[in-house]
Queue: 2 jobs
Job 1
Amino acid sequence: QMLPLHHVPSVCAGASSHEPSARTPFVNRYYFKGLHQSAMVSDEAQRLAQPQPAGESQLLAWRMDDSSEDQRAPHRRDPNEVVSPAHLRELGVLSWKLNPAAELEDPQLQAIREVRGYSYQDIIEVSPQTLTGYDQKIKSFFEEHLHTDEEIRYVLAGSGYFDVRDFDDSWIRIDCRAGDMIVLPEGMYHRFTLDEGNYIKAMRLFVGVPVWTPLNRPQEGHPSREKYAAEFTKAQGDLSSAAVAVH
């Protein structure tokens, strides 16, 4: 069951306000009652909600160059250094390929929402036509930050880039297009920008009442950052140790 939500946060990943704006380009906003009851989730829902295996994922990502020119440019290194979906998974990034034409009627999206407890969602459009002060605001979205919860984005149309920090602190650029759904883990340093197409329509999901406040870097002593470091950098250390043992 869907309930309209009247008090909504501001515009985008990295926005700090909790108050709605008259120019906030939301399409719709909903809470979903009765979710996050994992004991009652069917086997079929569990199957549908599984992230796409890394070996099947077509999500594109690459290591970024050091140029400070237009953030909307691809910023690939020369030669291009591709980052595999398997490496993104090691960093904690999950992904799915869904059917954006179906939107709320997509049974896989419904299963993901049910299994992962996403009880809130809204749909947002960002472009020069829908967002006052567009050029300035997309620069503000590009500030490196983390959140105290997962960040979930499902691209319905258009495209954009999520940049995430690798274990060595270099930037990885993830190219998100229509049908791509990604989850960035709590405590991961990241940022967002549109690409040169200057348009994205995306669904944002959240567990419970959304808290969009970004915590700009540095946040090394923050519990969410420590949680991320303990879970994913330890896992990377274990993988490295195992590789050394094999050789």
Job 2
Amino acid sequence: RRRGREALLNGPRGLAVTAEEDFLLIADSANYTIRRMRRSDGMVETVVGDGGRESKDGSLRACSLAFPYGLAWDPSTDTLVVSEWEGHRIRRVDFARGEVTTVAGSGERGCCDGPALVATFNEPCFLCCDATGHIFVADSKNNALRCVTPDGLVVTLVGTGVAGREDGGLEAAALNRPWGVSLDREGSLVVADGKNHVVRVLSDPLLAVKAAVARFAEGGRGG
């Protein structure tokens, strides 16, 4: 443990605040761990990860994270959700139970929709959660915006997998290395479209989820 400016980090990426707002959580990416800073006194400690760079479930300090990138607090479960940039997975940290599990991603690179642990990602970056348990992911190298539904299905909301800058309907819109994603107060999804150097808005993400789930049921984006 070290206090404030005495703490040493290595390439930190994502940040999240716990539900009680008493701790700041830090994706210490190149140390392959998650650190926690107590806001009252600035004390920093490692709370998740053994420092290994494989993607391994387990207890908080016995698990490993493959380059943790984005962090988001899931208010529906009071857990921390983590994107793994090198592991191509989405992980969940349950501090109450003291365990880390894989939420989505087989670990292979790809852009396959489907059941969460079969679906594939390609260098997912930042992510965010809504109050009902939907996890929205900026799937950067797939040039896509993805969603992990509370029912355990991964669907593509925006993006064909090919880089582009087109606005329009969900089937036509295109992104180029989306990195950041956040929900605004009106419930719209705001996306930092990295290599297009613009900010994009998906006005009704839950409607987009419903459409994507229906498309998958009809045989779309399954392979």
